[in-house]
Amino acid sequence: MKCSEFLALIDDLMDDAVSADVRAELQKHLSGCEHCEVTLSTTRKTIQIYRSHEIYDLPAGLRERLHTAIMARCKKGC
Ligand SMILES: [Zn+2]
After folding, report:
1. Cα(55)–Cα(9) distance, rounded to whole angstroms?
2. Is the pTM for the entire model greater than 0.70?
3. What's the CA-to-centroid distance between 63 and ligand 1, angstroms?
4. Spatial separation of the C-alpha atoms in residues 65 and 77, rounded to whole Å
5. 54 CA to middle of ligand 1, Å?
6. How far is the CA of 30 from the centre of ligand 1 (A)?
7. How far does residue 8's CA lie from ligand 1's centre (Å)?
8. Helix, strand, coil shares, percent, the chain, to 5
9. Model confidence pLDDT, tens digit, residues 14-66
10. How many angstroms does the Cα of residue 35 sit away from the middle of ligand 1?
11. For the chain, which residues make up each domain, given as ranges?
12. 36 touches 6 (CB < 8 A)
């Protein structure tokens, strides 16, 4: 799995909408890719902050902004 494929699935992973097979692939990628591990934990924290403020609906465009930032970093780093 490439980083771009991982990042394409990160939303589904957050929503717990991935199959066991896909989850295993994602875990395999994570164990070998520090960049995506950091990305995942950053995304999780961001979502937790929103949820802790009882903002259950993420603001429009937040995911897109995260994606853009992540992909920009990924192009440099991996
Ligand atoms: Zn990666």
Report:
1. 23
2. no
3. 18
4. 18
5. 31
6. 7
7. 11
8. 75, 0, 25
9. 888 999 999 999 999 999 998 899 889 988 888 788 777 776 566 677 777 77
10. 6
11. 3-77
12. yes
